[in-house]
Amino acid sequence: MTRIVSLLPAATEIAAALGLMDQVIGVSHECDFPERANERRRVTHCAVHDAKMASREVDEWVRRALHENGTIYTIDEPLLRTLQPDVILTQKLCDVCAVGYGTVAKLAQTLPGPPRVVNLEPTSVADIFSDIRHVADVCDARVRAETLIESLSERVQHVRERAATVPHHPRCFLMEWVDPPFCSGHWGPELVEIAGGNDSLGRKHQPSAQVEWQQVLDARPEIIVLALCGYDIDRARRDYELLKRLPSFSSIPAADSGQVYIVNAGAYFARPGPRIVDSLEILAGILQPMEFPEFVSRGPNDPRVVRVG
């Protein structure tokens, strides 16, 4: 049996979807889905995880830590040695999202074996599906991977085809951070496009980036979706209050028409695993509610998405 350590929530979800959770012996501090992930040993730590800090403070802390240390995470090296993994799932995509690949690869060379380090670095929906295949190839779950990807691809195509028939694709701002403002990147703008919207500020298949608030005002989005990196709906509500206080917010069409939504980005949008298709369906319900009534928010207690505008 392949002994797996996952340093990335999305990788843990991929392993679970492939039926490999019994082989996962260690996870990151952020891995919380499926529920069984919470029973595994945690091999990473981040000082600001679950810290009661304002978003501006988090942004400043992250920038400072990356400048001074090159990382915002620590690895429990003694625990990792005790676990003796055969495979470590990690990533190169984002220094803020998880432990950097270089750090993991260097450490892995000092471990017995040494373990195989698997890099997941998606920038698109297709890349996410390729990562599922990659994990499956390494862990001998190829048949299950193809069944999973076929099911996920059918759901994506179902949304794509229906959204394409709708004549109006609203201007949408998929916002990844409020203070300071960040647009979405990588697969985010692609999801908006497939779901029947247009995000002119998004950086499709590129890293997200800070934007000037005036750019948002000039874009005049008809819909704003707060997909705040790592935040659930309750935490994101606090930043919605910050958003409302930004200059001329009420002049934006989305604010004027009450078309502002908060999504559980920590569970969906920020995790490039199987639930990225759930993210697409959530967006379809926001952007094209008449076409996709089955995905529309179920009200203020919906754990996926709520309308706050």
How would you describe the overall organization of this protein?
The mean pLDDT is 92. With 309 residues, the protein is of the alpha/beta class. It has 11 helices and 14 strands. 39% of the residues lie in helices and 16% in strands.
The whole-angstrom Rg is 20 Å
Instruction: Give the percentage of residues in beta strands.
Output: 15-25%
Order of helices and strands: EHEEEHEHEHEHHEEEHEHEHHEHE
Number of strands: 14
How does the major sheet shape up? 5 strands, parallel
Low-confidence stretches: none
What gap, in angstroms, lies between the N and C termini?
50 Å
- The shape, in one word, is globular
Q: State the helical fraction.
A: 25-40%
Content-based structural category: alpha/beta
Please, how many helices? Answer: 11
How would you name the oligomeric state of the polypeptide chains in this document? single chain
Output mean pLDDT.
92
Question: In summary, what is this structure?
Answer:
39% of the residues lie in helices and 16% in strands. The protein is α/β, with parallel strands linked by helices. α5 packs antiparallel against α6 and α6 (142-164) runs parallel beside α11 (276-287).
